[in-house]
Amino acid sequence: MAENIEYLWVEKNLPGKPCRLFNFGSRDDRTVELFTEKGYTVVGVDLLPDPRAGKTRNYEFHKGDFLEMSFKERFECVYGISSVEHVGLQCYGVEAKFADPDGDIKT
């Protein structure tokens, strides 16, 4: 239920279309489908592969550490639902090289 509230909050605060949304921790985030189906372009980043990559219209996926990435284009919205608190933790199959006890603070 909490996720639904978060999704609704993000959706309510989105700028008008067309716009590009940046979603960190996107692998298990259902907003990818929600927002791409509504005509938004979503750029997702996660440390783990996303099975939707290359299969979902208006979805561009990048595997890796978003703290080490740079993008030429700007984003009208940046969000990460239930993601910040997991940054730096070695869980969900994330490699040890990404472990950092201060990861959430750095994010």
UniProtKB/TrEMBL annotation:
Q: Which InterPro entries match?
A: SAM-dependent_MTases_sf (IPR029063)
Protein name per the record:
Methyltransferase type 11 domain-containing protein
Identify the species of origin: marine sediment metagenome
Q: What is the lineage of its organism?
A: unclassified sequences, metagenomes, ecological metagenomes
